């Protein structure tokens, strides 16, 4: 639904600053914007306010400027910034770039005949900005919003969107998948691995046709738990790189609140079907848990959301999260790798380039309690030693890592006896 045409009671150009002191300057700027838009595009546009704070519009705009889909019509104030310096990473490439500023600028989509405007407003007590959409009518604007969300899905498929709760609200960044992780690279027991991937694949196969056929709610949640360094993140990366759907990663922090929970679920609901990974779910602040549970139950989300929660401390998980459809239906323990998996991992790292097969089997046998991350550290240490000395002392490497593991487990780190003093000596 959209607004019908309406008439105006008060016309800004018929009144002076003395008559309308609070409105005149604000209206004057917007009138100038509409005049310039008409001169440069030939379209008579109307103003619409984005009261929902739809960040997706501006995220898509930034991408579309780079892609040439959106054009800069004009900057508004001459003594306000028109560009921003950003350190950008795209794949293996990273460097400083200068991006056109979204604030203080008017952009236009010729294909949709829609303009976007972030207007800085300067007042004595505070400076702020308001976000406007410009379109010929409500119908065109709704068509454009449909484009925005389809475009956002397309953008999100090329990377992982990261939500981080901060003191100033939800910060959104994107991380490019620079190194594809294949499903074969994920170190899990065969039956467990098949069950997780089958659940994922069926969820996104033909828009969840399986769920409709068997009258199952089109929501799914799994919890991955176990000691750190055993491939929970690698599993998530392999999922992100192997499904045709957006993947978002939400980092819970001490700043997670009812507001940030509602914001994240509002965003992902518009992108569904998609995967939402919730990292360190056990660290959800107590004050926000009831809101989080309501969001999982569907009060603020919709169908098409596949949740993956991760934790290193399952004993801290709220029991209300488990064994309830729409929350987390299944929990999977990601254990330290078995002897077979340790050997598979070491051969996969191509240790046989400078070791015998017997040496590799010996390492696998001697590293019973090692996580995948610790096996990787052993490989790195062995490769460095071989590179510089053309020999590897396996027993010493293994013992050193075992000792480090034990100190980490018991927190018995060697410290400088003088390091406990605090303050200054006079």
UniProtKB/TrEMBL annotation:
InterPro entries: AAA+_ATPase, AAA_ATPase_domain, ATPase_AAA_core, ATPase_AAA_CS, P-loop_NTPase. SMART domains: AAA (SM00382). PROSITE patterns: AAA. Pfam families: AAA. GO terms for molecular function: ATP binding; ATP hydrolysis activity. The keyword ATP-binding applies. Residues 218-338 form the AAA+ ATPase domain. Keywords: ATP-binding, Nucleotide-binding. Belongs to the AAA ATPase family. This is ATPase.
């Amino acid at each position: 639904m959209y607004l019908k045409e309406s008439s105006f009671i008060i016309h800004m150009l018929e009144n002076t600053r003395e008559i309308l002191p609070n409105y005149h300057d604000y209206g004057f700027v917007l009138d100038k914007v509409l005049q310039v838009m008409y001169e440069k595009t030939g379209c008579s546009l109307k103003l619409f306010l984005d009261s929902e704070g739809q960040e997706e519009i501006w995220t898509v705009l930034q991408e579309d400027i780079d892609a040439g889909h959106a054009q800069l019509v004009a900057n508004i104030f001459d003594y306000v910034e028109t560009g921003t310096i950003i350190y950008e990473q795209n794949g293996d490439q990273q460097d400083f770039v200068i991006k056109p500023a979204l604030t203080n600028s008017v952009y236009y989509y010729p294909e949709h005949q829609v303009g976007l405007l972030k207007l800085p407003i300067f007042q004595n007590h505070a400076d702020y900005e308001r976000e406007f959409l410009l379109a010929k009518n409500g119908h065109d604007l709704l068509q454009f919003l449909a484009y925005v969300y389809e475009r956002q899905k397309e953008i999100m498929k090329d990377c992982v969107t990261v939500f981080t709760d901060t003191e100033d609200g939800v910060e959104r960044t994107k991380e490019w998948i620079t190194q594809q992780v294949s499903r074969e690279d994920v170190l899990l027991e065969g039956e467990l691995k098949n069950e997780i991937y089958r659940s994922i694949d069926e969820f996104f196969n033909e828009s969840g046709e399986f769920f409709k056929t068997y009258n199952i709610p089109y929501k799914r949640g799994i919890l991955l738990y176990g000691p750190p360094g055993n491939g929970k993140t690698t599993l998530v990366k392999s999922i992100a790189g192997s499904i045709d759907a957006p993947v978002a990663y939400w980092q819970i922090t001490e700043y997670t609140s009812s507001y940030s929970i509602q914001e994240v679920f509002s965003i992902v609901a518009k992108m569904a079907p998609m995967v939402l990974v919730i990292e360190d779910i056990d660290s959800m602040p107590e004050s926000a848990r009831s809101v989080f549970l309501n969001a999982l139950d569907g009060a603020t989300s919709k169908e098409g959301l596949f949740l993956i929660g991760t934790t290193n401390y399952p004993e801290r998980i709220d029991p209300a999260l488990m064994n309830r459809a729409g929350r987390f239906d299944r929990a999977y323990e990601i254990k330290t790798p078995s002897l077979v998996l340790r050997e598979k991992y070491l051969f996969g790292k191509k240790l046989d380039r400078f070791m015998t097969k017997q040496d590799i089997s010996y390492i696998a046998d001697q590293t019973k309690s090692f996580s995948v991350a610790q096996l990787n550290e052993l490989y790195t240490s062995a490769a460095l030693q071989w590179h510089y000395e053309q020999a590897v002392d396996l027993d010493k490497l293994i013992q050193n890592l075992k000792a480090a593991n034990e100190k980490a487990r018991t927190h018995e780190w060697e410290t400088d006896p003088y390091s406990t003093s605090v303050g200054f000596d006079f």
